[in-house]
Amino acid sequence: MRGMDEFVRQEAAPPSAPGEAEHPSLALANSAVTVPGGHTTDLLGTPAQAEQWLARRDLAPDGAGLAEVCATQLRSLREQVRSLLASRVAGQPALPAAVAAVNDAMTRVPTASLLRWDEKTGPHRVTPHPTTAIVEHALAAIAADAADLLTSPDAARLTACASPPCNRFLLKHGRRQWCSTRCGDRARAARAYARRTTMDDAT
Q1: Model-level pTM?
Q2: What would the mean pLDDT of 56-62 be, rounded to a whole number?
C-alpha cells in the first residue's frame, strides 16, 4: 500500500510546464520535480508510473507491462536530456556522453520498413510494430524530439524555472520565467519577503 508521504509527494507535482505539450523531451526532463521541502516527485519512479507516463503521451499502449529495466532506461535518458537542456540554457558545450546517448537512442530503432522473407508469401517489407520494442521506440521518439528542440527556433526560448528549488525547464512566453503559476507565486512571495527583511534591517 502506498504511504502517505509518497502520496503527498506525488500530489505536489505542478502542472505541465510551457512547452511540454509540444515537446515530449521537455516533459521527460521535467518528470522528476524538486518541490519545496526538499522532496522529489519522480513520475517515472516505478514501471507502472513509467508506463502511465508513456501512455499519456501516446508513446506506449495501455497495459504494455513495462519492467523495471524499461523504467531505468527512461530515467537514464532523462538525465542525459536534462544535461543537454542545462547546457543550452547556460550557453555551455554539451557533455559528449549526453549527445552520444541521444544519438544512440535515435539510431537504435529502424525507421524504414524492413525486408522479411516468409516461406509461404515470399519477400515483403514490414515496419516493426512499436509494441515489439515499446521502450526503444519511445526513447527514439523522445530523443528525436530533443534533437529537434535543441536545433529549432524554440531553443532560444528554453530556460530554467526561476523559482528555487524547482528544477524544471520551460519555453518562455514573453517575460515569464516560471514553469507554473505556483512557482511564480512562490517567487513573488520570496521577493516580497526579501524586500520586507531589507527594510526592517534598515530601520
Answers
A1: 0.79
A2: 91
